Amino acid sequence: MISSLRGMNDILSDDYERFTYFIEIATNVAKRYGFHFIETPLLEETALFKRSVGESSDIVGKEMYQFIDKGENDVCLRPEGTAGVVRAFVQKKLDRAGGLHRFFYHGAMFRYERPQKGRLRQFHQFGVESFGEASVHEDATMIMMVSDILKTLGIGYRLQLNSLGDENCMPQYRTSLIKFIESMEDKICEDCQRRKTTNPIRVLDCKNQACQEIYKNAPKLVDNLCDGCSNDFTKLKKILENNEILYEIDTNLVRGLDYYSKTAFEFVSDNIGSQSAIAGGGRYDKLVEFLDGRATPAVGFAIGIERLMELIIMPENARNGYYIGAMDTEAIDIVVELAQKKRKTEKTVIDYKVKNLQNHLKAADKVNAKYCAVIGSHEMKNKTVWIKNLEDKTEQIVEVKNF
RNA sequence: GUGGGAUUAGCUCAGUUGGUUAGAGCACUGGUUUGUGGUGCCGGGGGUCACGGGUUCGAGCCCCGCAUCCCACCCCA
User: What are the DSSP calls for A173-230, one per residue?
Assistant: First the structure.
């Protein structure tokens, strides 16, 4: 037997119902906020992710499905969604068109990681990207969108918030943090020593107790924001409070992708194991420029669909449509004909087997039909159909031509 | 990539110190005397015990390898 590759799942039956239910709700919310669907390729030039996500990130450094195609192009399966959307935005010259451009997307992403609960090699994200709006109101809007989606689904969450600063304050902070780390280098764990060069800010949320003690004295990002960033962060918190969105400040919250600046947020759930981030996002004002576009402020988020699916409780399925069957061999042809007719307007499940009434009713019940329609010898004689409403148990006999 | 646990029917799981033909519940399927379901009763099908080796008279059970899943690290959605 050939089975699917490690970390790559089939989606069917209940999972599929859950999946499409989520997409429908998220899509409705995105549309209500004035966002438009965008589909970008699953395969992109490797350079796109190296330049956007960043070569130092784990995603690019060791998790990409990267290969040389038959035309000698260095390509890879997308590990995340933002880079492709930004690439499309620049390629379509929307950066030059000016104005606001708001997109949403959903689809498969690929990362070669060790699978565990809530972490797959092929997984799905629903994401939103907003271009051209520098106001912190748009940052707040992103958070409110996620909140709306989660509320509609009845999913509880904690919102963690941070500001990563911008080109004015971040490099300065980074330097002083590195200086601090270097002064403590012999006391911190191996992971942190590695992080010093790859992603120094990451050391702040090291799980190691000893490290945490040391970092209590480290310079804090929130204390080092420039006026612009600091004002925006204050404003953001105000907007969220006005809209009754609870948040907690997590000064150690870092986005793993290099392109983020200023607002960073993460929605986490305590009910799905250690892969607890169900949505994350933030502002990335420099990314369009990095990808050769005209400087354009931008902000976005992505939701991990599989992680969310663990938390979705589906509404009960009401009975719906018809079940139709024959109690006589001679009736089968008529039943098939009637099913085709009914299918133009209703969900109709047909059973080709001849069964007695009891078994047809059982079968109708099993497929959750609202009506069970049956033709037997009586009905054949009178050219009628016997129909039972399985909800209120009422029965009726209608002429075949009126079915 | 590192460490730990698990793997028996479609699903959830029993399976004694290694001992005849590997079980249950659910699901599926048929019947329940002749046209009334979801909830009664009786029956039936379904297993290379993940896979590959080894020890043994004998392995679902012990040993080694491997794959996958789960948990933690790591990383992130």
Answer: HHHHHHHHHHHTGGGS-HHHHHHHHH-GGGGGG---HHHHHHHTTSPPSGGG--HHHH
Q: A171: which residues sit within 8 A by CB, 6+ positions away?
A: none
Is residue A261 domain-shared with residue A352, that is, in the same domain? no
Q: What is the pTM of this model?
A: 0.90
Other beta carbons within 10 angstroms of residue A340's beta carbon come to 11
Which nucleotide lies nearest residue A5, CA to C1'? B68
User: Are residues A106 and A251 located together in one domain of the fold?
Assistant: yes
Confidence (pLDDT) at A256: 65
Contacts 24+ apart (CB under 8 A), A340-348: A341/A403, A342/A403, A346/A321, A346/A322, A347/A320, A347/A321, A347/A322, A348/A321, A348/A322, A348/A323, A348/A324
Closest C1' nucleotide to A113's CA:
B75
CA of A16 to C1' of B29 (A): 27
Beta bridge partners of A375: A326
Strand B nucleotides within 7 Å of a protein CB: 1-2, 28-32, 34-38, 67-77
Q: What is the pLDDT of residue A159?
A: 96
Average pLDDT over residues A13-32: 94
Model pLDDT, residue A163: 93
CATH number for the domain that contains residue A389: 3.40.50.800
- Mean pLDDT for the stretch of residues A82-86: 97
Domain count, chain A: 2
pLDDT at residue A131 in the model? 98
Q: A138-153: per-residue pLDDT in tens?
A: 999 999 999 999 999 9
| Of A245, A274, A309, the domain-final residue | A309
Amino acid type, A5:
L
A119: domain range?
A: 13-169+225-309
